[in-house]
Amino acid sequence: MIKNPPLLKIRKDFARPSSTELAAFANLQTGYAVDAMSGRGALDYRIKPLAPLTTPMVGVAITCHCGPADNLALFAALASAKPGDILVAATDGFTATSVTGDLLMGMARNLGILGLVTDGMARDLAGILGVGLPVFCAGLTPNSPVRNGPGTVGLPVVVAGVKIESGDILLGDNDGVVVIPRSEAAEVIKLLPGIRSAEASLEAKVKAGLGVPDFIQSILDSDRVVAS
User: Is the residue at 138 inside a domain?
Assistant: First the structure.
């Protein structure tokens, strides 16, 4: 590259889900949201909360791309975030240094931000737990990043195998993080009652003693199975 890129590219205006749409995902298990999206939407299994959650995390994604060993863009994202947002920091899966610690998360809490999701690492576990915001990450390391850039804020990123855009809905629990694209939120919400009903029905049958579900028994009894 002949010319150095700008330190930061920032997109401040993007569509956000309505408060009604966000409310529809409150206290929802991530698995239900995944079932409403044909079985996909979760980040890589390694992205987990630093501490168990008692209630799911739900909020609006504000994205940043930090790149490896850098968190300038994450600090810039603080300035663009609104209360109820969740910071999303893409690091290209870099694990040799952290991307956040307790001080940055304390600043996020002061701004009304609800949590952070990254494919990178965190540090200062005791301090982060004291802040009280959920941090979903790939792990912990005391190594610290620099703040040199370049980076982006508000533009699409890929985190742990899933594309995330600012304005998407993030749902996180102890199983992991699910991304509900803003453009699909209304359709997902329509499907949730049926999924809840089917799950409750099967759960009741299991508690009543069900061993082999009807769907597999019908296949076993059909001509699509050859027994020897």
Answer: yes
